[in-house]
Specification:
By secondary structure, the chain is an alpha/beta fold. The protein has a domain of 267 residues: Rossmann fold (3-Layer(aba) Sandwich), CATH 3.40.50.1100. It has 19 helices and 15 strands. The strands form four sheets. The chain has a seven-stranded mixed sheet, sandwiched between helices. Strand 12 and strand 13 form a beta hairpin. The protein starts with 5 loop residues before the first strand and ends in a 9-residue tail after the last helix. The beta subunit is responsible for the synthesis of L-tryptophan from indole and L-serine. Keywords: Amino-acid biosynthesis, Aromatic amino acid biosynthesis, Lyase, Pyridoxal phosphate, Tryptophan biosynthesis. Its cofactor is pyridoxal 5'-phosphate. InterPro entries: Trp_synth_b-like, Trp_synth_b_CS, Trp_synth_beta/beta-like, TrpB-like_PALP, TrpB-like_PALP_sf.
């Protein structure tokens, strides 16, 4: 009898609740602080940017939060997503390990991002919001919010990091197809964007700058709110449908992960696959090793400092304690645009401090090499961001080969690379270079971190 390649759940098995890891943490994460008073922020401080339901999810310590039925109805367009056994990749590597991957590229936007875009649009529409502003790097998040906004009758304005805006015109075209307006960031439509361009007209942009522009416009109009695609607790919460489904599918395969691997930029797809399993371990179940894989050119977990910092470059956001390279740090223009962010999600950073996850960093050519091998074995061309998880999984499989260990490896293939073929063309032509950041700029950015006294 042949071993199955894919494990599918029925729509009736779609999770009814999101999982909130805050309920199971051995130590509560540090509070979010108001930048003026350095006191913990309250709901009123966040109300100009988010609807109250999302604010309540942001601070909740309830283990399960119900997924509204209108959200589940839209989820059924692509969820439950498939779990695959990578038989051919295992064979190519000659590893005794079993490799499973959860594939999130089946969503309308081609990535995991609609898992949170849909509920964010739903809660905003319920609260009477008419317009959403947001940022996007590679474009997966902007595409997803454009899709979700259209479903709930919301106007969507997307500030796309300029280097990605230029590199990935088809992502922009998809956003416009869904009805959104997409601008290169830094732009001339915000005071902060104009300030940045005045200092450097050819600025490549960064997620921190794009966030600043989106927040600036959201705060100016009562009918407008801001939506974020990663980093915040409620975003990570929504993504846990990935890991919750994977748990059911692995039981179908009579398997359980020894190692979980996820790509990390802001932390949402990583949290989505890993948090339910980490929580299961914290409640007394098996504890897998959990490996976060980040780009060597923007290594917040492996090179950043665990400190309070702003989430944006203009310092319009509250202060959160996270692994950060400094809010003024501009990552070099490597192709995994969704991973070009100066900070890591506070919850992911907290887990790193608690010793519950590990972190490694790889260059983009290493990751593209892994992605090409995966595509030639499994048929799916991964997004540059997902290539980091592929690289991490391959390294774990090769370790198993060296050690003669038949471990089970689970990773999240968070999106396809169909809009990233220019990057693959550069890779095959030998034109894709390993970008490096300026050590002096990093030192300056870290030196400029806000001064927040440690609690007594």
């Amino acid at each position: 009898m042949t071993t199955p390649t894919k494990y599918l759940l029925d729509e009736s098995q779609l999770p009814k609740f999101w999982y909130n890891i805050a309920a199971d943490l051995p130590k509560a994460p540090p509070p979010v602080l108001h930048p003026g008073t350095l006191q913990p922020v309250g709901p009123d401080d966040l109300a100009p940017l988010f609807p109250m339901e999302l604010i309540l999810q942001e601070v909740s310590t309830e283990r399960e939060i119900e997924i509204p039925e209108p959200v589940r109805e839209i989820y059924r367009l692509w969820r439950p997503a498939p779990l695959y056994r990578a038989h051919r990749l295992e064979k190519a590597l000659g590893t005794p390990a079993k490799i499973f991957y959860k594939y999130e590229g089946v969503s309308p936007a081609g990535s995991h991002k609609p898992n949170t875009a849909v509920p964010q649009a739903f809660y905003n529409a319920q609260a009477g919001t008419k317009r959403l502003t947001t940022e996007t790097g590679a474009g997966q998040w902007g595409t997803s919010l454009s899709f979700a906004g259209q479903l709930f009758g919301l106007e969507v304005l997307v500030f796309q990091v300029r280097v990605s805006y230029d590199q990935k015109p088809y992502r922009r075209a998809v956003m416009e197809t869904y009805g959104a307006r997409c601008l290169p960031s830094p732009s001339t439509e915000t005071e902060y964007g104009r300030r940045v361009l005045a200092q450097r007209p050819d600025h490549p942009g960064s997620l921190g700058i794009a966030i600043s522009e989106a927040v600036e416009l959201a705060a100016q109009r009562e009918d407008t709110k801001y939506a974020l695609g990663s980093v915040l607790n409620h975003v990570l919460l929504h993504q846990t449908v990935i890991g919750l489904e994977a748990m059911e599918q692995l039981q179908m395969a009579d398997a359980w992960p020894d190692v979980i691997v996820g790509a990390t930029g802001g932390g949402s797809n990583f949290a989505g696959i890993a948090f339910p399993f980490i929580g299961h371990g914290l409640r007394g179940g098996a504890r897998p090793r959990v490996v976060a894989v980040e780009p060597a050119a923007c290594p917040s977990l492996t090179r950043g400092r665990y400190a309070y910092d702003f989430g944006d470059t203009a310092h319009l956001t509250p202060l959160t304690k996270m692994h950060t390279l400094g809010s003024t740090f501009t990552p070099p223009p490597f192709h995994a645009g969704g991973l070009r962010y100066h900070g890591m999600a506070p919850l992911v950073s907290h887990l790193k401090e608690l010793g519950l996850i590990e972190a490694v960093a790889y260059t983009q050519t290493q990751c593209f090499e892994a992605g090409v091998l995966f595509a030639r074995c499994e048929g799916i061309v991964p997004a540059p961001e997902a290539n980091h998880a592929v690289k991490g999984a391959i390294e774990e499989a090769l370790r198993c080969k060296r050690e003669g260990r038949s471990e089970t490896i689970l990773f999240n293939l968070c999106g396809h690379g169909h809009f990233d073929m220019a990057a693959y063309q550069k890779y095959f032509a030998g034109e894709l270079k390993d970008e490096t950041y300026d050590e002096r700029e990093l030192a300056m950015a870290l030196a400029g971190l806000p001064s927040v006294p440690e609690p007594a």
